[in-house]
């Protein structure tokens, strides 16, 4: 049997120094060959089966190096699924492993459904009969779970945005269909190429926005942007260090920025945090002092999460109050540090200032309270207190890969329209875009186009 | 009524409308001894509604029928009063031919075809009872007690099955156009355990052309180039009659609003489900009350009659209101109504009770086709009739049955939709129902289907060999254009400039040059002439295949995926209750539809991908068990 190529992260999320992204299917090698460069420049097709290769993953679009990896090449049928299989060993941690997965998805693989590798192994005769029931249970169980997640997301912002896009596409499609099926019907505007270009451009831009600014995508690609603030000597760098020590940080230079702004990624109980301006904290202990009030406000504004550190051993100062003002309306956690010293701070006052935000007390010196803080971060994230509609990793990757696909089909439509291709041909890519967006929200009702046709137009001959 | 044995046949077709005639002709041509029974011999291939054949999607069906060896295309080519190619400004996939028919000539021509057909017996009779033995059709009994025995039976009753005409508050038992309805047959079908539903359709009034003031209307002429549905037609009718366009007025809408309480649609008298794509004028006015006017097309019903069909004014309002309505339309102020419009309710089969061959699941060797299967439209009926006739014939002759897939033909889309999804309103083909419409074009119907027609025995050897020659010429020319380089010399550049194209920088393959928007086949042929002169159709074929190659390839890739899923067969005796994990709703649907392949199963609404996965594994499990056991 021949199937399309599927991919997934095969190692548990968020743990381990190494993660594995696996590809299986008839074009597994072709996809890997597109994104993998070995120092010898040799194509994977020329390599022997069951060999392992060192090299880099490259984004074929711009030639940018994404990761340094070890790649295992296993040709079917002597593999787990009996198909061609590629395993990419990359750095562990959400951000890097997701980049690798994205790259595979964008270059032609499809995200595997739950249990799909096992299913293929079975369908290709690799697993014996007794295991079949277990596979079925797996599919059913995971799908139900996925459906619950999907339902939860239905109310989300993303779903609403997608629904709007789909409705616009559907109306466009219906108009084209009416022009075709009822050519003499006079009351409907002919869907001309300029109109089509307008619609496609709009949809394409909206998808871009979704891809770029949606917190979902951003968090996945970049982590939850987190700023640690507080007066000098309240323990910001201790907090930073303890988060990093506990959570295997990856220190990265961000391309295109000056070297003195360093961002560090940590993985706190599955939540990817991008700690902003950690260099600032280390060197000067005060972000405001170092980059100025205005700029620090801007940094704060761009942050998804703020950790405000207060000194338990001192009374609240005017600076503390100013910081509260500066972060009003944002997602933050208050950390009252130095509980090892006698308490001087006005806890009730802090509660008043922070409204309903979480307050965690710590003694970073004695390593007290770090667990509670991590829990607070995780619950804030997973309970959806932070404005992100889609919090599960799988759906995230799925959404991004679908949005990327939608972007490419609507771009095809747009290019065709600009090249005077007849509208009913462009329709093919527009319909595809509409379907792909529907896969994100789980709406795939085929009849809806025809319903739209009859609801929108009064039809005769 | 005493019964008597009246004869034994391979195939009996009940009904001689658009489905029945195709079924009967196909079965007889294939060599099956065939009988066709009709309530009224003078109503063979009658058009009870609009006098036209073809249009988007439907016109392509007529081409497909012709490629498979059916009759509709050839008959309308001989009997039309006007022909137009629609959607010429759009892509090749949606171009479609439509003819205005001379209704009487069409009937006469079709009747003559039936009469002349070898192996075919025509008889006027009302069928009242189906004879079934061991869940297999054995024959049928007519009103006069005649018993006909047959291997297979095709039922094509159209709107005759318990038909009821409704005009205002008047309701009476009748087939279309006051024909005798078929009542006892409906009981017989129900008694066999079939689910029937009540559908409704309607037709507008007809007026006398001598009383129309055409000066207040716009002329709608036919094309002035020769057009034909059939690939074999060589004589073209260039003497055409025009249609005319006018509009409803504010007065029309006022009359409807004032008289809505008299409409059986709104009084609740009509219970059957009507089609959304062909709404009555009262429906249009109520649902789209912001529209100031609606189009009315005046279509002649033939050359030898003054009767004119008032397209767009379909209604079941009482006759006195219909008269007011006509008088409110510019051009029809003094028009004499010859027949009133009416609504008709009738029994239809729930089509999910059929296999994709159109054989019923309950009764072996019994087939249904046309409006009885919940469709509307002459072309939809004819397409089904042809396939039912083919399969009834093949079965009677003990040959393997034939099913067209969704990627083969609009007819395949139509039948698959019916038997897989069912329909809750009279079903009409629309181009948007076809996911591979770029492949299902007007121009390539022969390339898609003629081979099948030949294999079945409907396309004669002479036509087939001509077709093979055409096919080869097209293929050779495609190869030639894809391998021939055109040099950027002066002649080339001048020609490109003359059509406002951008000059060549380098040599280019002829096919790539043809892909440019401003180029066409003849221009490219000027630079790189073919050794063989191609016909207009062949040139068109080459041009389409080159110009839209990218899109065609995309569609073909999708079809490849579909084919793989179609190849995964579901055993007929599968027990869905024994499969753990399939959702309850999906189980019920699967048991009802009993899909033959995984592809068909995945098209059933309510069956989701997880159910399909489980089904796949279950089937594979059975196979492995068989191999190891």
TrEMBL record, chain A:
Domain TrmE-type G: 223-382
Compartmental location: Cytoplasm
Cofactor(s) the protein requires to work: K(+)
PROSITE patterns referenced in this protein's UniProt entry, alphabetically: G_TRME
Subunit structure as annotated in this protein's UniProt entry: Homodimer. Heterotetramer of two MnmE and two MnmG subunits.
Keyword list, A-Z: Cytoplasm, GTP-binding, Hydrolase, Magnesium, Metal-binding, Nucleotide-binding, Potassium, tRNA processing
Top-level class of the enzyme under EC nomenclature: hydrolase
Stored InterPro entries: G_TrmE, GTP-bd, GTP-bd_TrmE_N, GTPase_MnmE, MnmE_dom2, MnmE_helical, P-loop_NTPase, Small_GTP-bd
Domain of life: Bacteria
Organism: Psychrobacillus psychrotolerans
Chain positions recorded as Mg(2+) binding sites: 237, 258
NCBIfam families: mnmE_trmE_thdF, small_GTP
Name under which the protein is recorded: tRNA modification GTPase MnmE
Any Pfam family: TrmE_N
GO MF term list: GTP binding; GTPase activity; identical protein binding; metal ion binding
Binding site for (6S)-5-formyl-5,6,7,8-tetrahydrofolate: 22, 87, 126, 461
Record flagged with keyword Hydrolase: yes
Annotated K(+) binding sites: 233, 252, 254, 257
A Gene Ontology cellular-component term: cytosol
GO BP terms, alphabetized: tRNA methylation; tRNA wobble uridine modification
Cofactor annotation comment: Binds 1 potassium ion per subunit.
Automatic annotation (TrEMBL), chain B:
Name of a matching Pfam family: GIDA_C_1st
GO molecular function, one term: flavin adenine dinucleotide binding
GO cellular component: cytosol
UniProt cross-references to InterPro entries, sorted A to Z: FAD/NAD-bd_sf (IPR036188), GIDA_C_N (IPR049312), MnmG (IPR004416), MnmG-rel (IPR002218), MnmG-rel_CS (IPR020595), MnmG_C (IPR026904), MnmG_C_subdom (IPR047001), MnmG_C_subdom_sf (IPR044920)
Domain tRNA uridine 5-carboxymethylaminomethyl modification enzyme C-terminal subdomain: 546-617
Lineage: superkingdom: Bacteria
Amino-acid positions noted as binding NAD(+) in the UniProt annotation, renumbered to this chain: 274-288
Keyword Isomerase included in the entry's annotation: no
Keyword terms of this UniProt record: Cytoplasm, FAD, Flavoprotein, NAD, tRNA processing
BP-aspect Gene Ontology terms: tRNA methylation; tRNA wobble uridine modification
Keyword rRNA processing included in the entry's annotation: no
Compartments in which it is found: Cytoplasm
Requisite cofactors: FAD
Principal location listed in the UniProt entry: cytoplasm
Positions annotated to bind FAD: 15-20, 127, 182, 371
Assembly information from the UniProt record: Homodimer. Heterotetramer of two MnmE and two MnmG subunits.
Family classification: Belongs to the MnmG family.
Biological role: NAD-binding protein involved in the addition of a carboxymethylaminomethyl (cmnm) group at the wobble position (U34) of certain tRNAs, forming tRNA-cmnm(5)s(2)U34.
Protein's name in the database: tRNA uridine 5-carboxymethylaminomethyl modification enzyme MnmG
Species: Psychrobacillus psychrotolerans
Organism placement in taxonomy: Bacteria, Bacillati, Bacillota, Bacilli, Bacillales
């Amino acid at each position: 049997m021949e199937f399309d190529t599927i991919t997934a992260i095969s190692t548990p999320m968020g743990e381990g120094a190494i993660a594995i992204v696996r590809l299986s299917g008839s074009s597994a090698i072709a996809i890997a060959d597109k994104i993998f460069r070995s120092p010898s420049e040799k194509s994977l097709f020329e390599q022997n089966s069951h060999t392992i290769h060192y090299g880099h993953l490259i984004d074929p679009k711009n030639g940018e190096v994404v990761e340094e990896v070890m790649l295992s090449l296993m040709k079917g049928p002597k593999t787990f699924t009996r198909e061609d299989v590629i395993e990419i060993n990359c750095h562990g941690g959400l951000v890097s492993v997701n980049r690798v997965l994205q790259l595979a998805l964008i270059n032609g693989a499809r995200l595997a459904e739950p249990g799909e590798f096992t299913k293929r192994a079975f369908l290709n005769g690799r697993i014996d009969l007794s295991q079949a029931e277990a596979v079925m249970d797996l599919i059913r169980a995971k799908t139900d779970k996925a459906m619950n997640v999907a339902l939860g997301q239905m109310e989300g912002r993303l779903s609403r945005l997608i629904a709007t896009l789909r409705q616009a596409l559907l109306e466009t499609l219906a108009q084209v269909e009416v022009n075709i099926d009822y050519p003499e019907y006079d009351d409907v505007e002919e869907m001309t190429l300029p109109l089509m270009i307008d619609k496609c451009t709009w949809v394409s831009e909206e998808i871009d926005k979704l891809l770029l600014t949606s917190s979902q995508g951003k968090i996945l690609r970049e982590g939850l942007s987190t700023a640690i603030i507080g007066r000098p000597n309240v323990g910001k760098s201790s907090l930073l260090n303890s988060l990093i020590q506990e959570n295997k940080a990856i220190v990265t230079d961000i391309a295109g920025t000056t070297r003195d702004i360093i961002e560090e990624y940590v993985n706190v109980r599955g939540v990817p945090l991008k700690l902003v301006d950690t260099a600032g904290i280390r060197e000067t202990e005060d972000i405001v002092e170092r980059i100025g009030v205005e700029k620090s406000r801007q940094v704060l504004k761009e942050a998804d999460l703020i950790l405000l550190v207060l000194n338990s051993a001192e009374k609240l100062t005017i600076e503390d109050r100013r910081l509260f003002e500066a972060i009003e309306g944002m997602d933050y956690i208050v950390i009252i540090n130095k509980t090892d010293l006698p308490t001087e701070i006005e806890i009730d006052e802090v509660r008043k200032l922070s409204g309903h935000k979480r307050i965690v007390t710590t003694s970073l010196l004695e390593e007290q309270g770090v667990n509670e803080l991590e829990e607070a971060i995780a619950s804030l994230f997973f309970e959806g207190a932070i404005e992100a509609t889609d919090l599960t990793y799988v759906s995230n990757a799925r959404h991004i890969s679908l949005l990327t696909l939608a972007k490419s089909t609507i771009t095809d439509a747009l290019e065709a329209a600009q090249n005077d291709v007849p509208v009913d041909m462009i329709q093919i890519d527009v319909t595809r875009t509409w379907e792909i967006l529907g896969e994100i929200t789980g709406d795939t009702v085929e009849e809806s186009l025809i319903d739209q046709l009859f609801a929108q137009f009064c039809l005769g001959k | 009524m005493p019964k008597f044995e009246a004869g034994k046949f391979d195939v009996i077709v009940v009904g001689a409308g658009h489905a029945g005639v195709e079924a009967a002709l196909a079965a007889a041509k294939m060599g099956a001894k065939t009988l066709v029974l009709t309530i009224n011999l003078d109503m063979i291939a009658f058009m009870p509604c609009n006098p036209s054949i073809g249009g988007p999607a439907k016109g392509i069906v007529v081409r497909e029928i012709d490629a498979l060896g059916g009759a509709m295309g050839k008959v309308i080519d001989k009997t039309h009063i006007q022909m137009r190619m629609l959607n010429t400004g759009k892509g090749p996939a949606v171009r479609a031919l439509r003819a205005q028919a001379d209704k009487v000539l069409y009937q006469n021509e079709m009747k003559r075809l039936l009469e002349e057909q070898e192996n075919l017996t025509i008889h006027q009779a009302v069928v009242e009872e189906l004879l079934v033995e061991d869940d297999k059709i054995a024959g049928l009994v007519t009103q006069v007690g005649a018993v006909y025995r047959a291997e297979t039976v095709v039922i094509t009753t159209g709107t005759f099955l318990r038909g009821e005409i409704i005009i205002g508050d008047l309701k009476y038992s009748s087939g279309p156009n006051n024909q005798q309805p078929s009542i006892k047959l409906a009981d017989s079908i129900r008694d066999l355990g079939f689910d029937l539903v009540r559908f409704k359709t309607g037709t507008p009034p007809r007026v006398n052309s001598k009383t129309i003031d055409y000066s207040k209307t716009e002329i709608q002429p036919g094309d002035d180039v020769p057009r034909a549905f059939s690939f074999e037609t060589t004589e073209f009718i260039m003497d055409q009659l025009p249609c005319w366009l006018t509009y409803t007025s504010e007065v029309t809408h006022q009359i409807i609003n004032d008289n809505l309480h008299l409409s059986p649609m709104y009084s609740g008298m009509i219970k059957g489900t009507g089609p959304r794509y062909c709404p009555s004028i009262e429906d249009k006015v109520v649902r789209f009350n912001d529209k100031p006017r609606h189009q009315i097309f005046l279509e002649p019903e033939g050359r030898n009659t003054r009767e004119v069909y008032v397209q767009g004014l379909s209604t079941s309002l009482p006759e006195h209101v219909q008269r007011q309505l006509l008088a409110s339309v510019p051009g029809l102020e003094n028009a004499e109504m010859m027949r009133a419009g009416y609504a008709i309710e009738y029994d239809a089969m729930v089509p999910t009770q059929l296999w994709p061959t159109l054989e019923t699941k309950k009764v072996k060797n019994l087939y249904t086709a046309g409006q009885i299967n919940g469709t509307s439209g002459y072309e939809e009926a004819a397409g089904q009739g042809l396939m039912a006739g083919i399969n009834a014939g093949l079965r009677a002759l003990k040959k393997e049955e034939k099913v067209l897939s969704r990627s083969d033909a609009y007819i395949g889309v139509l039948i698959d939709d019916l038997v897989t999804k069912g329909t809750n309103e009279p079903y009409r083909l629309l181009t948007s129902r076809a996911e591979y419409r770029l492949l299902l074009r007007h121009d390539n119907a022969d390339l898609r289907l003629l081979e099948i027609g030949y294999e079945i025995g409907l396309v004669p050897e002479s036509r087939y060999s001509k077709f093979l020659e055409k096919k080869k010429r097209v293929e050779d020319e495609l190869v030639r254009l894809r391998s021939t380089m055109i040099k950027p010399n002066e002649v080339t550049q001048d020609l490109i400039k003359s059509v406002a194209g951008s000059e060549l920088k380098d040599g280019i393959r002829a096919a790539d040059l043809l892909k440019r928007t401003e180029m066409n086949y003849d221009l490219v042929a000027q630079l790189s002439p073919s050794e063989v002169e191609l016909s207009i159709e062949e040139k068109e074929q080459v041009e389409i295949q080159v110009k839209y190659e990218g899109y065609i390839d995309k569609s073909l890739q999708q079809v490849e995926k579909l084919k793989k899923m179609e190849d995964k067969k579901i055993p007929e005796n599968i027990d869905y209750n024994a499969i753990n994990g399939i959702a309850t709703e999906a189980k019920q649907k699967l048991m009802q539809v009993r899909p033959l392949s995984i592809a068909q199963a995945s098209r059933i609404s309510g069956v989701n991908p997880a159910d399909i996965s489980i089904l796949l594994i279950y089937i594979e499990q059975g196979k492995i068990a068989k191999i190891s056991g």
